[in-house]
C-alpha cells in the first residue's frame, strides 16, 4: 500500500504510526486487501447486501433520560452513587468534571 | 446422584474443600496462565437485586469464569488490552447477571487475544495462556483462557465470546464443548463490542449437560440489547421437535491436518452406523467466507473501537498537549499490533470511494453464504464441519503466523456471518492433542445441536489432560 494512503487511513483512525510500523502495516494491510479481492471471483449480481443476519427491524426504547442504572434489565434505580462508579474510571478529573488538555 | 453442577456447589464455602480447590486452581494457573484476575476467596457476591438464591437452582454456589471482555461488576475489564488497564466494571453483563441471580459465583476473568482479535490468546497484552494438554502449545483463541480453565477442571464452565470462532476454536484445541448460540439468543449487553453484527457470548464446558443448563439460564430477550432476539412460536415448536436424522458433511475438503480429516470421516461413519443419514453437500461460498468475514469484522471494529479515546476511561497518554493529540497518543500507546492492523483495515474499507469494492461486496457475499446455509438446511437437519484445519499449534514462530490464522477461520466464521448456532464438540485425541468438530443448525435450534452432540458423545470416550482432578469436589 502506498505510504500516503496508509498515512491518510491512520489519521482517520486516530492512530500515529512510527516509521517501522508504517513498513510493517503497509505490507500486512496490502496482503489482506489483496486477499479481499478474491471476492471479485464471485458473482454477487442481484444479491441484496446483508447488514444483519437475523434482524428484521430496529427496536428502540423510549427516549427518556435516566441516571446510569448500575443494574440490568428493568431494575432502574436512582442511586446517585452509580454515577460515581462511572466517574471513578476517568483517568483525570476535577471533582465531577473530566479534564482534557487546553483547547485554545 | 448429584448433577455435574451440583457437585461443584459450595466449593467456595469456607472449609476443607475450598482450601483444596484454591490449591488446585493455583497449581494449574502457574502452569497455564488462564486468568487475568482470579479471586477464589471472594464471598458469594449478591446479584444486583441482592436476591441471590441458594435454593433449588442447579447453579447455586457454582463457580464459573468469564472472559475479560465481558463485564462483571467488581472485576476489571481489560479486554486483554493496555488501553483498559485498571478499568473496574461498574456493572455486570446481562448474561453474567442472569447466572449470578441463579446463585453462580464468578471466580475470575480469563485471558484473551486483545479485544477478541486472534486465534491463539498470544495476542493478549498481559500474558500467555498455554494449552493444558501441552503447555508448549496455545490454548486457541480468542477465548483461550476460558477454554484452558475449563479443560484443566478449574471451573465447570466459562463464558467466552464468539465473533468468528473464538469460542469453538479454543474449545476444540482444549478438548471441551464450545457453544456459539444463535445471534441474539444471548444478550450482548456488557460485552465489549468488536464486531457487533457477528459476535455473541458463548459457553464453554467439559460436559454437555452443563452447556445446556447454562444456555437455559443465560439466553432470552434483554431490553438492554436491541439486537437480542427470541424465536417465534413456529420456529420454537419446529426446533423442539427437530431430531438429528440427516447430517450434511462437506464434500472434498482440502488443507486439513490428516488427523482432523480422519476424525471427520470417522465421525460421519459412526453417526451413520447409529442410524443417521449422512449426506455429502457442497458449499460453494466456503472459499469466500474468510474475506467477507474480515471485511465486515474490521469495518465494524474500526467503528466500535473509536470509543477508546483515553478521556472518559482507560489509559490516557501523559504526553499530549491538545485534545486531538491526547486521543491519537492514547490510542497509539494503548492498542496492540493486531488491533491497530484491524482498525486500519476497517477504516480503509469504509473510506469513501472504497466502500462498494470491499464493504458492500462483502455484505453481498454474506447474503450468498446465508443462502448456502438455507439450501443445506433444506436438505439436512444439521451440518457437520471441522472447527479448525489443525490441532493446537505451538506458541510463537513455530506456530502459525497471523495471516495463516485468519485463513484458518474458514470453518468457523460462516456461522457468524449467517447468525446460526454452532456447537464444537470433542472428537477424541490424536498424538496427545484434542480434535474438535462442530455441528451447525438453523437459527434457534440449539436443542437440536445438543441432541446431535449427545449422540457424538457416545462415540468418543471423555478424556482429560494429565493433572486433571476432581478430588476437591468430594
Radius of gyration of chain B: 21 Å
Largest sheet of chain B: 11 strands, mixed
* Overall geometry of chain B: globular
Number of helices of chain B: 15
Uncertain stretches of 5 or more adjacent residues of chain A: 70-78
Count helical runs of chain A: 3
Percent range for helical residues of chain B?
A: 25-40%
**What class do helices, strands and sheet pairing of chain A give?**
mainly alpha
Report the end-to-end length of chain A measured between terminal Cα atoms: 36 Å
Give the strand content of chain A.
under 5%
| Shape field of chain A | flat
- What's the count of strands of chain B? 13
CATH topology of the largest domain in chain B: Amidase signature (AS) enzymes
**SSE order of chain B, one letter for each helix or strand:** HHEEHEEEHEHEEHHEHEHHHHEHHEEH
What CATH architecture label of the largest domain in chain B applies? Answer: Alpha-Beta Complex
Strand neighbour order, sheet with most strands of chain A: 1-2
Unreliable residue stretches of chain B:
46-56
**Residues in β-strands, percent of chain B:** 5-15%
Using brief descriptors, characterize the structure shown.
heterodimer, A: 104 residues, mainly alpha, two-stranded antiparallel sheet, 3 helices, 34% helix, B: 474 residues, alpha/beta, Amidase signature (AS) enzymes, 2 domains, eleven-stranded mixed beta sheet, 15 helices, 13 strands, 15% strand, globular
Amino acid at each position: 500500500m502506498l505510504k500516503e494512503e496508509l498515512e491518510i487511513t491512520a489519521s482517520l483512525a486516530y492512530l500515529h504510526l512510527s516509521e517501522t510500523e508504517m513498513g510493517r502495516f503497509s505490507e500486512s494491510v496490502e496482503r489482506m486487501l489483496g486477499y479481499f479481492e478474491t471476492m471479485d471471483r464471485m458473482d454477487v449480481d442481484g444479491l441484496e447486501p446483508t447488514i444483519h443476519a437475523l434482524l428484521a427491524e430496529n427496536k428502540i426504547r423510549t427516549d427518556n433520560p435516566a441516571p446510569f442504572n448500575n443494574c440490568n434489565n428493568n431494575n432502574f434505580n436512582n442511586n446517585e452513587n452509580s454515577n460515581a462508579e462511572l466517574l471513578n474510571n476517568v483517568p483525570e478529573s476535577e471533582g465531577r468534571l473530566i479534564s482534557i488538555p487546553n483547547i485554545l | 446422584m448429584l448433577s455435574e453442577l451440583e457437585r461443584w456447589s459450595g466449593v467456595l464455602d469456607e472449609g476443607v474443600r475450598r482450601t483444596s480447590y484454591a490449591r488446585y486452581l493455583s497449581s494449574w494457573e502457574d502452569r497455564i496462565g488462564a486468568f487475568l484476575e482470579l479471586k477464589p476467596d471472594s464471598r458469594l457476591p449478591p446479584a444486583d437485586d441482592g436476591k441471590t438464591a441458594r435454593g433449588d437452582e442447579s447453579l447455586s454456589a457454582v463457580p464459573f469464569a468469564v472472559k475479560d471482555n465481558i463485564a462483571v461488576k467488581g472485576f476489571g475489564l481489560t479486554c486483554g488490552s493496555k488501553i483498559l488497564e485498571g478499568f473496574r466494571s461498574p456493572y455486570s453483563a446481562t448474561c453474567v447477571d442472569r447466572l449470578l441471580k441463579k446463585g453462580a459465583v464468578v471466580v475470575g476473568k480469563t485471558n484473551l487475544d486483545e479485544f477478541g482479535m486472534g486465534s491463539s490468546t498470544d495476542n493478549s497484552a498481559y500474558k500467555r495462556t498455554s494449552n493444558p494438554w501441552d503447555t508448549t502449545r496455545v490454548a486457541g483463541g480468542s477465548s483461550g483462557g476460558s477454554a484452558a480453565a475449563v479443560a484443566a477442571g478449574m471451573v465447570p464452565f466459562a463464558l467466552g465470546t464468539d465473533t468468528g470462532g473464538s469460542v469453538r476454536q479454543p474449545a476444540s484445541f482444549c478438548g471441551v464443548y464450545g457453544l456459539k448460540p444463535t445471534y441474539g439468543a444471548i444478550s450482548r449487553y456488557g460485552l465489549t463490542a468488536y464486531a457487533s453484527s457477528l459476535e455473541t457470548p458463548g459457553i464453554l464446558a467439559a460436559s454437555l449437560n452443563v452447556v445446556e443448563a447454562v444456555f437455559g439460564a443465560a439466553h432470552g430477550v434483554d431490553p438492554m440489547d436491541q439486537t437480542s432476539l427470541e424465536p417465534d412460536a413456529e420456529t420454537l415448536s419446529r426446533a423442539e421437535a427437530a431430531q438429528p436424522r440427516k447430517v450434511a458433511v462437506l464434500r472434498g475438503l482440502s488443507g486439513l491436518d490428516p488427523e482432523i480429516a480422519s476424525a471427520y470421516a470417522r465421525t460421519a461413519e459412526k453417526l451413520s452406523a447409529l442410524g443417521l443419514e449422512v449426506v455429502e453437500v457442497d458449499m460453494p461460498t466456503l472459499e469466500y467466507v474468510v474475506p467477507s468475514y474480515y471485511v465486515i469484522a474490521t469495518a465494524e471494529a474500526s467503528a466500535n473501537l473509536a470509543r477508546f479515546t483515553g478521556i472518559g476511561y482507560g489509559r490516557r497518554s501523559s504526553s499530549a498537549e491538545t485534545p486531538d493529540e491526547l486521543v491519537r497518543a492514547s490510542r497509539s500507546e494503548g492498542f496492540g499490533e493486531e488491533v491497530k492492523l484491524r482498525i486500519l483495515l476497517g477504516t480503509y474499507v469504509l473510506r469513501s470511494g472504497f466502500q462498494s469494492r470491499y464493504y458492500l461486496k462483502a455484505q453481498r457475499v454474506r447474503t450468498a453464504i446465508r443462502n448456502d446455509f438455507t439450501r443445506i438446511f433444506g436438505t439436512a437437519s444439521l451440518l457437520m464441519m471441522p472447527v479448525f484445519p489443525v490441532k493446537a499449534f505451538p506458541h510463537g514462530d513455530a506456530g502459525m503466523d497471523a495471516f495463516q490464522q485468519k485463513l484458518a477461520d474458514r470453518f468457523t466464521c460462516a456461522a457468524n456471518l449467517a447468525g446460526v448456532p454452532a456447537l464444537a464438540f470433542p472428537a477424541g485425541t490424536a498424538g496427545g492433542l484434542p480434535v474438535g468438530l462442530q455441528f451447525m443448525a438453523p437459527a434457534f435450534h440449539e436443542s437440536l445441536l445438543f441432541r446431535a452432540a449427545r449422540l457424538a458423545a457416545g462415540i468418543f470416550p471423555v478424556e482429560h489432560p494429565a493433572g486433571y482432578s476432581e478430588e476437591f469436589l468430594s
